[in-house]
């Protein structure tokens, strides 16, 4: 702004000064806004372009979501991955119920569809859940046999978790294997269900991270049957095992 313009600016009323600034500096302002916008877009793109190292869903356990997010960095460190390049994907807001009279039955149906799609695409690795969700997922055969998995992958880890493994029942004679569809009207009579039982989850309720929370029941960690991320699944279980070990040493 040259001397004449400065004098003109001083003589303007307060209400007219913003318009004068805009007229005089329009191009620099627009350029600055554009640069800021592009910088923000690039930053957002870089943040969203992180690779997903592991995907965990929370079913009926919304109370631990904030706590779980704080463990991401520790898990990535255990995997020897840079947090700037990788992320742990946390899927919140999943609600499962078998009660058709539940006030959130429609929301639960949407959750079933979402989970079913993720599992079919092999985009879900593990799930943290309450007993109700554990029963539903177990019945459909969506959870890994942790005893077999651990004995094959890491016998020492199996010994660490053996007392915490939780058995449940898988229904083996469903007309459709997909219990998550929420459309059970065409299934066989529940009285004629045939079951097999095996360890499908780890009861993590006694971990130091959870013991001080006001939980309404036990919380279970299960691995999804068709996960392609077995190496990281083992590391995820080890992360919880370390917490158990610390608890035992205190």
Write a concise synopsis of the structure shown.
The chain crosses the membrane at residues 21-42. Keywords: Membrane, Transmembrane, Transmembrane helix. This protein is of the alpha/beta class.
Number of domains: 2
Shape: globular
- Tell me the series of helices and strands, N- to C-terminal: HHEHHEHEHHHEEHEH
- Give the rounded overall mean pLDDT: 77
Top-tier CATH class of the largest domain: Alpha Beta
By CATH, the superfamily of the largest domain comes out as Periplasmic binding protein-like II
Structural class per helix/strand content?
A: alpha/beta
Q: Tell me which CATH architecture of the largest domain applies here.
A: 3-Layer(aba) Sandwich
Residue stretches low in confidence (pLDDT < 50, at least 5 long) are 181-185, 245-250
End-to-end separation in angstroms reads: 70 Å
Question: What is the name of the CATH topology of the largest domain?
Answer: D-Maltodextrin-Binding Protein, domain 2
Number of strands: 6
Helix content: 40-55%
Biggest sheet character = 6 strands, mixed
Give me the number of helical elements. 10
Determine the strand fraction and express it as a percent band. Answer: 15-25%
Radius of gyration: 27 Å
Strand order, largest beta sheet: 2-1-3-6-5-4
Keywords: Membrane, Transmembrane, Transmembrane helix
Transmembrane segments: 21-42
Topology:
Blueprint: H1 3-11, H2 17-48, E1 51-59, H3 65-70, H4 72-78, E2 86-94, H5 105-120, E3 126-129, H6 131-139, H7 146-153, H8 155-161, E4 165-171, E5 195-203, H9 208-211, E6 220-223, H10 230-249
Parallel strand pairs: 1-2, 1-3
Antiparallel strand pairs: 3-6, 4-5, 5-6
